[in-house]
Design a protein that fits this description.
The chain has 446 residues and is α/β, with parallel strands linked by helices. The protein is built from 15 helices and 33 strands. The strands form 7 sheets. Strands 16, 17, 18, 20, 22, 24, 25, 27, 28, 30, 31 and 33 form a 12-stranded parallel sheet that branches. The protein has a 7-stranded mixed sheet with strand order 7-6-1-8-13-10-14, sandwiched between helices.
Length: 446
């Protein structure tokens, strides 16, 4: 049981990661836990854990779901020994009660017999926050729940984020879950008058009083709903606000939603360009601070097959151009004539001659063929993206290629998703937002 003076961390890691496909897929029928999404050289849950640990949290409770999800996370984190923290996991017999983010929280508060403060956060987001300041807001309002918030304009909010209405006392009076533009203009006329006007949106992270919340969870109506489906943003927070419970809001620096490919790539770009203060502190210092460039020393020594020169030699001669916001992992081979800008490249990857990669991510041991153009796209681990001078590959518009897929030279994809391990012949003209999930899907466009 946690002490009343200690803040513990509760990580909600049981979601299936449907929106983030194919990043969350190891194969067509095998979903990787969202916690294990590769992100800037580590798994996402590791960054979440370390960000919280650096702010004083030493005890963590992880809500998992099912055999694969539980085993994947536990194999990575263990019980926290590598990270200098303590980690406990939800019991498998309670999986059937983990229906919705708030339902999972309430049931596991009882399981773990928590009484003090807990920071509840999802595993598919990256937060830039000050826990001490959030705790201060929580105490000042004697809050049952303090909601982390991020200020956003109406255009950013529409259909994507929940909005909070606050009173003069700073407490939340109501929640509007993912309103559309008309509903926003009706509830908040100031957004229609000034497009730059911002509103506090729910960031999905909550500081809670465990003991008081557990008592409330025994109220018959809430108890019943928690056994059916109970989410934080759509259900529990509105329920608390309409009953006058003290729900406070606290503004944090940033929220990076990694639940879909465009948001994932945008968060990678922001992190590599230094926009997340906490990530700046957790990551190694860049080799070149001015341009925010990380190149592992092993990659600088590797010679490419074409010229036999090292990356260090190509950088000195200017035959490889590495722009701002680039991270190159271990043992990466890069050919001549390559241009990189705002790109994260995983360990063991190969980028062949003449390729250009911008605002993209390349997974471990992936191969990008010669003269490929990759813009605003995700290329998963072990992908073989074929390309040559006569038949260059082009990926753009938030295309995403899943683990181990093979693309033949000459394909041109804009906003196309390729599921793991598929072999895809040269295709052009495939409509944006098409998902190639099987051989049958591919045959439609051959």
């Amino acid at each position: 049981m946690s002490s009343h003076s200690e803040t513990v961390g509760i990580i909600l890691a049981g979601g299936r990661g449907e929106r983030a496909k194919p990043i969350t897929l190891k194969s067509t029928d095998y979903i990787r836990s969202k916690a294990l999404i590769p992100f800037v050289g580590r798994r996402l849950v590791e960054w979440v854990l370390e960000a919280c640990r650096e702010q004083g949290i030493r005890r963590f409770y992880v809500v998992t779901q099912g055999l694969e999800n539980r085993n994947q996370i536990k194999l990575l984190l263990g019980h926290g020994e590598r990270y200098g923290v303590s980690i406990s996991y939800s019991r498998s017999r309670f999986d059937r009660y983990n229906v919705g983010s708030a339902g999972a929280t309430l049931h596991n508060l009882e399981q773990w017999d928590l009484q003090g403060q807990a920071l509840v956060l999802p595993v598919d987001s990256l937060f830039d926050f000050d826990l001490t300041a959030m705790e201060r807001t929580h105490r000042e309002h004697d809050a049952l729940v303090t909601v982390a918030s991020v200020a956003r304009t109406a255009a950013e909010i529409s259909g994507k984020y929940g909005v909070m209405r606050t009173g003069p006392d700073g407490l939340v009076q109501g929640f509007v879950e993912k309103p559309g533009p008309d509903r926003l203009a009706e509830l908040f006329p100031s957004t229609a008058d000034d497009p730059r006007h911002t509103l506090p949106t729910n960031a999905g992270m909550y500081l809670v009083d465990c003991g008081r919340l557990r008592l409330l969870a025994r109220e018959p109506g809430l108890f019943r709903q928690s056994h059916q489906r109970l989410d934080w943003g759509g259900d529990l927070l509105p329920w608390l606000a309409t009953r006058g419970m003290p729900v406070a809001t606290h503004a944090i620096g940033r929220l990076g939603d990694l639940g879909n490919v465009p948001d994932y790539l945008e968060t990678v770009r922001l992190v590599l360009n230094g926009e997340y203060r906490q990530m700046n502190e957790l990551m190694d210092a860049p080799d070149d601070a001015a341009s925010r460039r990380w190149i592992h020393e092993s990659s600088l020594r590797i010679k490419d097959d074409d010229t036999g020169t090292t990356l260090a030699e190509k950088l000195r001669s200017g035959s490889v151009v590495v722009g701002p916001g680039v991270r190159i992992g271990r043992d990466v081979e890069i050919g001549p004539g390559v241009r990189l800008e705002n790109v994260d490249i995983g360990d063991g990857a190969e980028i062949r001659e003449g390729s250009t990669l911008v605002r993209s991510a390349v997974g471990e041991s992936a191969l990008i063929g010669a003269y490929a153009d990759v813009f605003d796209s995700y290329v998963g681990p072990m992908v073989e993206a074929g390309s040559d001078r006569a038949r260059p590959l082009r990926l753009e518009g938030f295309s995403a290629v899943g683990d181990g897929a093979v693309l033949w030279p000459g394909s041109r994809f804009y906003g196309v998703t390729v599921y793991p391990r598929l072999r895809v012949p040269a295709l052009t003209g495939v409509p944006s937002e098409t998902e190639l999930t099987s051989a049958e899907d591919i045959l439609r466009w051959v």
